TrEMBL record:
It comes from the Bacteria. Belongs to the 5'-nucleotidase family. The keyword Signal applies. Residues 70-81 have a biased composition (Polar residues). GO terms for molecular function: 5'-nucleotidase activity; nucleotide binding; UDP-sugar diphosphatase activity. InterPro entries: 5'-Nucleotdase_C, 5'-Nucleotdase_C_sf, 5_nucleotidase/apyrase, Calcineurin-like_PHP, Metallo-depent_PP-like, YhcR_MPP. This is Bifunctional metallophosphatase/5'-nucleotidase. Residues 1-35 form the signal peptide. It comes from Streptomyces ficellus.
Length: 602
């Protein structure tokens, strides 16, 4: 342990069993609180071992300003069993928390597990996430894996994020300034060029400090092509996470690097949404499920810890490796609301991590600390550039309309977005849409009634609408038979989506029943699928609106890719803003939809 006092940890601690390690721990603990860095450094060098602090986070998604509404909150379980919501996030606060955590820790490395960019609010997204890369440089991020959203604009744009240079069409956004790119390496071990077979970016990175070496291997989920537009992953292949990490683990070992951390943009689902939930109860890893559990159980025992992401969940678990030895698996929610502090005890003689002494915990990026001045300056600078667009009013709402913050299968904001798409594409010359479908993952935030700036309560600004739908997907209207439409509904809860259903948000007039007491495709009660009260005819053709991502079969919906007679319409954001303008006013704001189109049997 550090000589300076550490925060109380709600995470896992696996006690050292070796007598020698216990002796070292006792000597370190005996040092006076508040010892200076020189004393701590001497303590950390005592004997064979040295403590390395690993700070990590994931899924920032360009959220530099504090996220609004439920997107900016985490849940904590109190000792008496009650829960409370805590406002969290904002890079001004994240910087302060990380810098405070690093104090007194001469061996400190900061890593991330992907989706640093993409799906970003206007302030970053408008400038192709250059502001976020600049902020991460200031945060002194040492390394990150890529995530699926790093490919939203394709491999060439990702290379620009790494290497710098002005945007090919947008140019340089600030006079006299050229984007310099990331000072940290993006790792993409399992993303290869389909022609050369080589990783498009570095597969691993070795962090070194005074003879201590820790290797980082970064991968994104193998299924990235299923959740990114075809254009974004064109020419790329995505390999198996376990095979790739095990391959590069051997490479690092041959180079003499035996302490290894995997940065994996794939995650799990803890049994509780509380960030301090004990997911090792009743036994190691019993409280978590999902893809990362299978990955963790198969990865080489030589990998000492897994920093994960993608599911936007918070967990600190110990999942046994193939040899049965406990291994730390962590994730820090999303949007910069948490960070994980992990202590890795490094043995200088074996050059490996003493796994039995690894400890870790998630900490809230609370907003009760001073803002980091350099981050405040960065936000103000980019907000000034964005202001002419960001603050423009688009419409009015009477209360919060939850999207990302809703845990229900059918989300009020999902209904509103689908209605906007139907309204914009129903005219015959716009596509003649009868139904609109919206993917839930494309809803990136809530619409919050409380003013975010000077616009006034209930006013939806362009910046707020952009935060909800930041991808600017072009809308498609296609012919689908009733049978294909029902097949798409079944694919919400079967195939690749069976373990984690993706429930499409539907426009008004389209209704059906979802029976969650059943399994797989049977969860969709086929006889209940109706349009304006009339049962869907399997043989009849319907005009269905959806964004280009869904129309390409994204998110595990191959049935939607079977559409015929495609008409390309306006962007999803343009339709959303047009609907807000046409259907709301200061005296007649839009109320939250009832979200009663999908009947759910639990």
């Amino acid at each position: 342990m550090s000589a300076t006092p550490k925060k109380n940890r709600a995470g896992r601690r696996i006690l050292a069993t070796a007598a020698g390690l216990a002796t070292v721990g006792a000597l370190v603990a005996a040092l006076p609180a508040g010892a200076d860095d020189r004393g701590e450094s001497q303590a950390r060098h005592h004997g064979r071992t040295v403590d390395v602090q690993l700070l990590s986070f994931n899924d920032l998604h360009g959220n530099l300003e504090p996220p609004a509404g439920s997107s900016g909150q985490v849940t904590r379980t109190n000792p008496d069993g009650t829960t409370e919501k805590i406002d969290a996030g904002g890079v001004e606060y994240l910087a302060t928390h990380l810098r405070t955590a690093r104090k007194g820790n001469p061996y400190s490395v900061t890593a991330a597990a992907g989706d640093m960019i993409g799906g970003s609010p206007l302030m970053s997204g408008l400038f192709h996430d250059e502001p976020t890369i600049e902020a991460l440089n200031k945060l002194k991020l040492d390394v990150t894996s890529v995530g699926n959203h790093e490919f939203d604009e394709g491999a060439k744009e990702l290379a620009r994020m790494q290497n710098g240079g002005c945007h090919p069409t947008g140019g340089c956004y600030e006079k006299g300034k050229k984007f310099r790119g990331a000072k940290f390496p993006y790792l993409a071990a399992n993303v290869t060029d389909e022609k050369t077979g080589r990783p498009i970016l570095d597969p691993y990175f070795v962090w070194e400090r005074k003879g201590v070496k820790i290797g980082f291997i970064g991968v994104t989920l193998e299924g990235t092509p299923n959740i990114v537009t075809a254009e974004g992953v064109k020419g790329l292949q995505f390999g198996d996470e376990v095979e790739t990490i095990n391959k590069y683990t051997k490479v690092l070992e041959r180079k003499g690097v035996k302490s290894i951390v995997a940065l994996i943009h794939e995650g799990g689902a803890p049994a509780s949404t509380s960030y301090n939930y004990d997911c090792d109860s009743p036994g190691a890893g019993d409280g978590i499920s999902g893809p990362v559990v299978d990955i963790a159980k198969k990865l080489s025992p030589q990998v000492d810890a897994l920093v994960t992401g993608h599911t936007h969940q918070a967990y600190v678990c110990t999942v046994p490796d193939p040899s049965g030895k406990p291994r730390m698996v962590t994730s820090a929610s999303s949007f910069g609301k948490l960070y994980t502090d992990t202590t890795l005890t490094y043995d200088r003689r074996t050059k490996d991590i003493v796994r039995t002494s690894v400890e870790s915990a998630n900490h809230v990026v609370s907003r009760d600390v001073p803002k980091a001045a350099d981050m405040t300056s960065l936000i103000q600078r980019w907000n000034t550039l964005a202001a002419p667009i960001a603050g423009k009013p688009q419409g009015f709402i009477s209360a919060d309309i939850n999207g990302r913050g809703s845990t229900a299968h059918e989300k009020p904001l999902g209904d509103l977005i689908a209605d906007a798409q139907l309204a914009g594409l129903a005219p015959a010359d716009k596509g003649g849409a009868q139904i609109a479908l919206m993917n839930p993952g494309g809803i990136r935030s809530d619409l919050v009634f409380k003013a975010s700036g000077a616009e006034g309560d209930g006013v939806v600004t362009y910046g707020e609408a952009f935060t909800v739908q930041p991808f600017t997907n072009m809308m498609n209207v296609v012919d689908l038979t009733g049978a294909q439409l029902v097949a798409a509904l079944q694919q919400q809860v079967s195939g690749s989506n069976e373990a984690s259903p993706k429930i499409l948000q539907v426009s008004k007039g389209f209704t059906y029943t979802l029976d969650m007491t059943k399994t797989g495709a049977a969860r969709v009660v086929t006889g209940s699928v109706k349009l304006n009260g009339e049962p869907i005819d399997p043989a009849k053709s319907y005009r269905v609106a959806m964004n280009e991502f869904l129309a390409g079969g994204g998110d595990g919906f191959p049935a939607l890719a079977q559409g015929k007679n495609k008409l390309v319409g306006a962007s999803d954001l343009d339709l959303f803003n047009a609907y807000l303008a046409a259907n709301s006013s200061a005296t007649a704001p839009i109320a939250p939809p009832k979200a009663d189109r999908i009947t759910v049997v639990q």
